[in-house]
Design a protein that fits this description.
By secondary structure, the protein is α/β, with parallel strands linked by helices. It has one domain: 3-Layer(aba) Sandwich (Rossmann fold). The protein contains seven helices and five strands. It is globular, with a radius of gyration of 16 Å. It binds flavin mononucleotide.
């Protein structure tokens, strides 16, 4: 499974980056997974202002910056979107980036890893809906991470205190990634038929 782990915040001092690094590190330990960090910071995009929905615009003209973003996400089999919760939803920068997507996620699985005072659960629910409308197959499981500031270090290592609590949602990441791989293998085979 070629997996893109998307960093859903570009704010100064963002913690989403270290959470995404933790996802990449964990994924790389699973057999058959090749994980890559895709940071929205590297793909600055204007606010979406195209004349029609990209999905229904056969004459679409794509700016170079937009093409760079779409080309960056297209080659993967599966996606983990790592998102903060801003005002009970995802950050505007992530929603804007998703609004540009047409077929890049079609029939490919995605999963959500979030953080916030309630693990970012409300943002995760919104994001699942958004990804579903973007034609991705969103898997039921998610990882809402409580206490991410102290729970993961800058290099993406999970704190010992988190590991010690088997009920902490952060401990469910391996299960999420294994499930994502199951969907990825199944959907890749079906797409290739
Ligand atoms: C504009 C803004 C709105 C926020 N709204 C929420 C919220 O609704 N619920 C929540 O749990 N945390 C909220 N927070 C706190 C964020 O979860 C926290 O700042 C987190 O570190 C954001 O991720 P980031 O550092 O990667 O941007 C908000 C933070 C910001 C900057």
């Amino acid at each position: 499974m070629k997996l893109a782990v998307i960093v859903g915040s570009t704010r100064q001092n963002r913690v989403t980056l270290k959470e995404a690094k933790w996802v990449v590190k964990t994924a790389q330990e699973i057999d058959g997974v090749e994980a890559t960090l895709v940071d929205l910071m590297d793909y600055p995009l204007p606010f979406f202002d195209e004349p029609a929905s990209p999905r229904y615009n056969p004459d679409r003209k794509i700016d170079a910056d937009v093409k760079k973003w779409l080309d960056a996400i297209e080659p993967y089999d599966a996606y983990v979107f790592v998102t903060p919760e801003y005002n009970h939803s995802i950050a505007g920068v992530l929603k804007n980036a998703i609004d540009y997507i047409t077929s890049e996620l079609n029939r490919k699985p995605s999963a959500v890893v979030s953080h916030g005072s309630m693990g970012g659960a409300r943002a995760a629910m919104h994001l699942k809906e958004i990804l579903s409308e973007s034609r991705s197959v969103v898997i039921p499981q998610a990882v809402p991470f409580l206490g991410v500031h102290e729970g993961i270090d800058e290099d993406g290592n999970l704190a010992e205190a988190m590991k010690a609590n088997p009920h902490h949602p952060g401990n469910h990441l391996v299960g999420l990634l294994e499930e994502l791989k199951w969907y990825s293998d199944a959907l890749s085979a079906a797409r290739n038929k």
